[in-house]
Each structure stands twice: as structure tokens, then as C-alpha cells.
Amino acid sequence: MKRLILTTLAGLVAAAALAQAEDPQVRRQVENFYHEWDRHIAAGDFKALIAMIDPSFAATDESGHTIYYKEAKAGLESTLKMAKNAHSKVTVDQVQAQGSEVVAWVHTKVSYRDAANKPVVFTLRSAETLRRVGGSWKLVAVQLIPKNYGG
Questions:
Q1: What is the CA radius of gyration of the chain?
Q2: Shortest CA distance to 90 belongs to which of 131, 130, 125?
Q3: DSSP strands (E only) in 79-118
Q4: SS3 for 114?
Q5: Which residue, among 53, 51, 111, has the nearest Cα to 83 in the 3D structure?
Q6: 88 in helix, strand or coil?
Q7: Under 8 Å between Cβ of 136 and 142
Q8: Using an 8 Å Cβ cutoff, are 124 and 108 in contact?
Q9: CB 55: neighbour CB atoms within 10 A?
Q10: What residues have CB less than 8 Å from 149, skipping those under 6 apart?
Q11: How far apart (Å, rounded) are the C-alpha atoms in residues 66 and 138?
Q12: What are the residues facing 83 on neighbouring strands?
């Protein structure tokens, strides 16, 4: 039931957002944010990645489980230490701005080699909130979108 409610809400938000025109300048800024994110992943630069995340950060998975900044920071650090040849490719599908925040609907492909040197590859879809803080964008929230939802 909870999953159905989250899926329905995500669909309503996405439908409302698609009715609004994107701001091309904001879209470029958001795309640049994610290009920077991808570069820091490839470099294994944990400090630079953490600097891109707001301390109020929260991420919710498809089942409704939420983690916050401290857990996300620890998980990211652990993964970067373990992963070899890590790469991410974030593709921005849609951007909607409201004041100092934007919601970006993105696809992210992640690949790396694990501790046993086996390849790991996965793709995520999410709605992510960025907030303008002190002249730069910070990642504030991530809501993973269920794999069986929409196109």
C-alpha cells in the first residue's frame, strides 16, 4: 500500500512538472552539477562529493526506507574505499525550478569493480532535489523511483 501511494504521488508530481516549461539556464546548471558529481566519483574524491551534499540530506528508496546525511556519508565513503574503477553517468531527464530549489528527474548508471574484482553495474531512476546554497547547488533529497514505474 505504501509503495502504491508513493508511486501515485510521484506520478502526480511528474505530470504536474511536465506541464511547466524548463528554464534552459537552470537545466545547464543542474547538468553541470551532475557532470561534476560524475568526475568526483571517477576520481574517488570523497571530500568533494560530500561538499556537494547538504547536511539536511535525506534519501528514500523504493520501499520507503529513508537514510539521512550521516548514513549516506558513511555509505558513500565505504563504497568509494572498496570500489575500484568507479564511474557514474547521470543523465538529466527533466528539471523543474521553484525558488532556490529544483527537482531533477535523473537516470544514473553506476559501474565499478568490487573487493573480489568482479564488475558491478546498475541503473537507478530518481527524483532529486537540489538547493542553491551560498552560490552553489547542494543535493538535499533523493527519492528512488520504482523500476516498474512508467517509461
A1: 15
A2: 125
A3: 84-98, 101-113
A4: coil
A5: 111
A6: strand
A7: no
A8: yes
A9: 12
A10: 7, 10, 11, 125
A11: 18
A12: none
The rounded distance, in Å, linking the Cα atoms of 11 and 151 is 11
Percent of the chain with pLDDT over 70: 84
Mean pLDDT estimate for the chain:
89
Question: Tell me, what's the pLDDT at 81?
Answer: 92
**Tens digits of residue pLDDT in 75-85:** 999 999 999 99
Cα dist from 34 to 18, 60, 91, 106, whole Å: 21, 19, 8, 10
By the 8 A CB rule, do 116 and 90 touch? no
* Grid cell in block for residue 113: 569493480
Convert the pLDDT of each residue in 117-144 to its tens digit. Answer: 999 999 999 999 999 999 999 999 999 9
Cβ atoms < 10 Å from Cβ of 41: 25
